[in-house]
Amino acid sequence: xxxxxxxxxxxxxxxxxxxxxxxxxxxxxxxxxxxxxxxxxxxxxxxxxxxxxxxxxxxxxxxxxxxxxxxxxxxxxxxxxxxxxxxxxxxxxxxxxxxxxxxxxxxxxxxxxxxxxxxxxxxxxxxxxxxxxxxxxxxxxxxxxxxxxxxxxxxxxxxxxxxxxxxxxxxxxxxxxxxxxxxxxxxxxxxxxxxxxxxxxxxxxxxxxxxxxxxxxxxxxxxxxxxxxxxxxxxxxxxxxxxxxxxxxxxxxxxxxxxxxxxxxxxxxxxxxxxxxxxxxxxxxxxxxxxxxxxxxxxxxxxxxxxxxxxxxxxxxxxxxxxxxxxxxxxxxxxxxxxxxxxxxxxxxxxxxxxxxxxxxxxxxxxxxxxxxxxxxxxxxxxxxxxxxxxxxxxxxxxxxxxxxxxxxxxxxxxxxxxxxxxxxxxxxxxxxxxxxxx
Length: 439
Prior knowledge:
Blueprint: H1 6-27, E1 30-33, H2 35-45, H3 47-68, E2 73-82, E3 86-88, E4 98-100, E5 105-118, H4 122-188, H5 194-229, E6 234-237, H6 249-259, H7 261-281, E7 287-298, E8 311-321, H8 326-329, H9 331-395, H10 401-436
Parallel strand pairs: 1-6
Antiparallel strand pairs: 2-5, 3-4, 5-7, 7-8
InterPro entries: OMP_efflux, TolC-like
Protein name: TolC family protein
Family: Belongs to the outer membrane factor (OMF) (TC 1.B.17) family.
């Protein structure tokens, strides 16, 4: 029979050439890095983290500025003026006025001083409010770090899974090619049909196409990681043994309540709303300040009789302001602050419940992934034994080629599922660490 199948041969060659070219491209300038190393690159390169850090720096400056506002307010002044004569209409406005001579040149210099002695502690509460906002900015910065770590971990693990799948499919393609040679020899000997050769070639072509898809996924994940980390070379995950485990769910929840970023931020926001109530109530309180003025001016028109000589004058005193209108204008401001405070407390409790639910779902997913890993390990052993038996039977003409191909595909699928389960365990672990605030 004729074994020349130009369509299948051309398709296999095209896929093979494409796979080879992609593999060659990937092999250039590759960089083998561990998860810890790539996290360091991400921390140093992430624009999201830098933005959060700059926001934190801004809040630190604002705290210093509110402290500076406790200092006395000092100003100096100076003016020079020219005054015209003052017409006096002593015979009526329609008659020519007489001109009253005045001192034409007026000079005034001096300094003003004001020190707040008491204003309901609004300045101190403003400093405390700025400190709370700085704490929130600090938590946002830590959250940004954790979010980048979580994203990098997921991308790195996806990339690691792709490389493992790539190695599995490459080894399987080598085995399939060897098996194809054996089937072709049987075909030449007349032991099998040409359809068997076609089916195996088709399955081999599918595997080569799957290899191309996996290499495409590797390139896509590499691009995402390179964007975050600033690494130009191809990133190749290093092999590592994952030996971290989680056991006690109650301990996880306890640790999350102490360290979770979302709860820390919510607690600070509750304190901020509580402080806003005190700030609103302080509007009822009087203000008392120490004030002084020093003047050096010409002419002297402060006391009668006036004269055009230079003089200086200093005034020191206390200034008291009692906001009477606040007793009716500030009433709704206090009510609004109380409502905002209650709303923030409800939000905080809701976030606690949401976090506990997320932790429970993640922990159950983690335990399920552990069980799946054990099951997949058994499935791999079973699939390997099944593939061995079916292969022996096929080459003894006791099984169909479909049975052979199904057994091979089942083995490859179970190997993929095993590695996917291993990666899923790590993803659930890091997600729980992220929720706990300890990633």
